[in-house]
Design brief:
Layout lengths: L17 H6 L2 E4 L5 E4 L72 H9 L23 H19 L3 H12 L3 E8 L2 E8 L2 H20 L6 H13 L6 H15 L2
Helix pairs in contact: 2-3, 2-5, 3-6, 4-5, 4-6, 5-6
Length: about 260
Amino acid sequence: MEKSEKAGEPIKASEASHSQLDAMPFRSVSRTGRSQPTNEIGNEKKTNIPAAKSVAAETVVPMLVFGKWDPGEVIVNDPSLMRHVSLTTKKIPHTFGKKTRRRFAKANLSIVERLVNKVMRTGQGKRKLSGKYIRGRGVMGKKLQTMRIVEDAFEIVEKRTGRNPIQVLVMAIQNAGPREDTTRIKRGGVYYTVSVDVAPLKKVDESLKNLALAAFQGSFNSRISAAEALAKEIIAAAGEEGTSFSVRRRDEVERIAKASR
């Protein structure tokens, strides 16, 4: 028989029975360092935490280019250009040159902003293109003026075609870029011209350059505005028409490359 314990005397762990150990309130330490009472060993006491209020899911508003056109509707049909025609954009296509400091980073730049940057130049420069010089519209370095030209051109394209102008632009880029070009190599002290395949990123650059030069050529010394000339060229290149400067330039480059095979 166990001896009776004195009143107020603490029970020793060696003398306590299993039932008494289960009845004793143990405390566990949480991750925050505070001890919490538990009913059983190793099982923390559940606290009544008020359930968070359910918040209704907010509708995601698509980012529209110039606040008017949705790039999510655009489809790129050329598999080789899918990785190099970026449709992620902002309301105002201007990233302040963030994606120009790394190699090949311009592939992730919005295709609309790349068109704006191509229009924002002085023309072809000192070289002749198709036997003549092409000068710009005096928008060198004027990003806001160039964006207004592109926005006005998109409005004209939408009015004449009834389609998303970004989709028409992507179709024009697919048709205006050459698939084959020439380069010079040296063998035995003699230079030769050989044909080479054009990389997809280079093809997009050439397409945008040809579209911009066509806008310069169509509006130089003319009453036609730069926006109207650019819209006319985008529509013609998207339809692969013979009147398009970009399509004629593509055929000329490919013809020279075919002769150099």
